[in-house]
């Protein structure tokens, strides 16, 4: 069913995507809220091996319920983006922490400004629903993201997002877990897509509902994702930093030998000299690898861009 903007222009088919794992306490209300705010949209609930009554509650609420056997939010998102065909996609969580009342505003902004993604940044996220460790990690990783990939995002971990069709159908979705939001942000930054952020309220979970996040484990997974994506997108800089580090180590090892040689004309510690030489050679190898992989990355970027343009639809 097609939806229409405030000016009467046709928006197209809207799909609400809700990945879920053991959200039986809240999923029925979440589905009801989104159906109330977006009566013309189709609400999909993708269950990820829940052991509670998530499927039954979502079915009673009138959602289209499907299952994804591979564990992890990233695997669920990959399946949702592959299966569902729509013009505009809304992704939220099934725990009821995101405000469905702003969904229409996010869609309107996506359409009016011809964007590919609108991120619902979480207002008062730390005060309302997060442990102190999550708050510190969120700030740290957001600052790290801006230094590595660009300044456009202030809340890369928000799961409340509206996408265009061309974003969804060009997104590779390699991640398997909660780091999927980071990959979405990097994908938009790499292709320099038009994106926007919109502050939204972020509430606490219902009593008895537990968060699936694990502070230490997921922090390491996100950090590893940062490193992998940085290597894939900017290999020349990645391997260049490693090469510079190796050069510095080689200089620290070689400087005393050089000073001794200038004073006495002798090289007293041959193993150290050989080690320093080997480190310099390794730095050269890293530099060459970075230059070669940079050319490969540019070719892959061109392919991604072409696939992104292939899925474009005029919103004029």
From TrEMBL:
What PANTHER family does the entry give? RFBJ PROTEIN, UNDECAPRENYL-PHOSPHATE 4-DEOXY-4-FORMAMIDO-L-ARABINOSE TRANSFERASE-RELATED
Matches recorded under InterPro entries:
Glyco_trans_2-like (IPR001173), Glycosyltransferase_2 (IPR050256), Nucleotide-diphossugar_trans (IPR029044)
Report the EC number(s), separated by commas if there are several.
2.4.-.-
Matching entries from Gene3D superfamilies are given as: Spore Coat Polysaccharide Biosynthesis Protein SpsA, Chain A (3.90.550.10)
All copies of the Glycosyltransferase 2-like domain together span 16-169
* Name this polypeptide is given: Glycosyltransferase
UniProt-listed CDD domains: DPM_DPG-synthase_like (cd04179)
One MF term in the entry's GO annotations: glycosyltransferase activity
Record has Membrane as a keyword: yes
UniProt keywords (A-Z) are:
Glycosyltransferase, Membrane, Transferase, Transmembrane, Transmembrane helix
Among its keywords, does the record have Repeat?
no
Enzyme class label: transferase
| One Pfam match | Glycos_transf_2
Q: Which organism is it from?
A: Methylomonas defluvii
Give the residue spans that cross the bilayer.
Answer: 238-262, 274-297
